[in-house]
Amino acid sequence: MGEQLSKDDVKEALKEAHKEWLDDKFAAFGRWTFWALVAMLFGALIHFVVWLKNPGFPNAESVFKNRIESIK
């Protein structure tokens, strides 16, 4: 039917398949890392915009104080 592969041929084929599999995994990791960085930058941008509108934003006390003053 077909000729038998030598041990070296099988070994090389397995090495190549393993290398391709790892390359795919590293490529997928790179995509996930890129989108995670984009999400973090987007969050930082939103935080900065909110801080510009309310300079005491990270301090919860200032946020509640502004809301209470607006109710009065």
Number of strand segments? 0
Q: What count of domains describes the coordinates?
A: 1
Distance between the termini: 91 Å
Mean pLDDT: 82
Strand content: under 5%
What proportion of the residues is helical, as a percent range? over 70%
Structural class: mainly alpha
Helix and strand sequence = HH
Helices and strands, with pairings:
Blueprint: H1 7-53, H2 60-71
Describe this structure in words.
The structure is a single chain. The protein is mostly helical and 72 residues long. The chain has one domain (7-71). It is built from 2 helices and no strands. The longest helix has 47 residues, at 7-53. The radius of gyration is 28 Å and the shape is rod-shaped. The model has no long low-confidence stretch (mean pLDDT 82).
Provide a short characterization of the protein structure.
The chain is mainly alpha-helical and 72 residues long.
What labels describe this entry?
about 70 residues, mainly alpha
